Amino acid sequence: MAPSDDRLRVALVFGGRSGEHEVSVVSARSVAGALDRERYEIVPMAIDRRGRWADAETAAHVLSHSGDRADRVVAFDGVARVDPRLLEPGLDVALPILHGPYGEDGTIQGLFEMLDLAYVGCDPAASAVCMDKALTKRLLVQAGLATPDWVELDRSSWGADRAGLSSRCLELGLPVFVKPARLGSSVGISKIADAAALGKAVDLALGFGRRTIVERGIEAREIEVAVLGNDRPRGSVPGEVVPGHEFYDYEDKYLDDACQLLAPAPLDDAQTEAARDLAVRVFAALGCAGMARVDLFLERPTGRLLVNEVNTIPGFTSISMYPRLWGLSGLPYPALLDELIRLAGLRHRGEPG
């Protein structure tokens, strides 16, 4: 049966300038495979590593290319500062599957706002805040939501007082995690158990941006909750990540099968409800809308829940927790995409959802 002419035209935007370029492409392929072609016409829009937008034929080729692993993504080059199809009438909604800077940080969302185009996910302000680990932590503390202690660094201060800032970081206690402030998918993150290794780890993280955080490591289980909604958000059943490496790093997430993704997480009823409640509170406190995956720590042995971070464009690959958790919560992948697109339309029209 041929698709009807009243299908919604969805701009599926992927790739991008960040270190998570390959992950974005893999996620977009999964989304394209799950969207109901009877309801939606997919308009692929690909951004290369330099931030240039590919022509329509190249974008379609990259999206359709086989392979669902980040290390099997075909390279491509863009030709324009923006895809001209974004400026033409007829698009109904944009679905950005762009992880990291220039996609998850409010920049592309600002473009959609300027174009008055409905789009899936958080607005520019919430996207920018959640992308910045330091800003997120400050707001969480202000809202009374627990998060591991941390020290903020930037290139200027680190260059001027490397020894003094190292001492401050080590006061957190070992181990510590060194993280670029504005990146995701564990790119550039190091776990440091030896004081002598701290400087090199900070240098590495600052290579991905001008600011970084050094965070106290805690003994904890890693719990994830998928949140969905606008002004009435709801949380999925929680999942748990059991890292196959020393911590849940990039290779563990996308390149090998060493980690275990437990869905649902083996929690008792009280822990499950506490995790869902905290995730929804975090979502609301940070001004999120549409979707986010809230990552929590369940501290050992206290059982206390702490907020790790918030991903406003979570992974949508075949193994990603966000669609998997909603599937276990009664919303299969295609229905989840339907709901995200519906929520985008409601917000664009100023209606509750």
Looking at this protein, list some descriptive labels.
alpha+beta, Rossmann fold, D-amino Acid Aminotransferase, Chain A, domain 1, Dna Ligase, domain 1, 3 domains, six-stranded antiparallel sheet, four-stranded antiparallel sheet, 12 helices, 34% helix, globular
Summarize this entry quickly.
The chain has 353 residues and is an alpha+beta fold.
Model description:
The protein is α+β, with helices and mostly antiparallel strands and 353 residues long. The protein folds into three domains: 112 residues, Rossmann fold (3-Layer(aba) Sandwich), CATH 3.40.50; 148 residues, D-amino Acid Aminotransferase, Chain A, domain 1 (2-Layer Sandwich); 67 residues, ATP-grasp fold, A domain (Dna Ligase, domain 1, 2-Layer Sandwich). 34% of the residues lie in helices and 22% in strands. It has twelve helices and 13 strands. The strands form three sheets. Strands 8, 9, 10, 11, 12 and 13 form a six-stranded antiparallel sheet that branches. Strand 1, helix 1 and strand 2 form a beta-alpha-beta unit. The longest helix is centred in the C-terminal third of the chain and has 17 residues. It is globular, with a radius of gyration of 20 Å. The two termini are 32 Å apart.
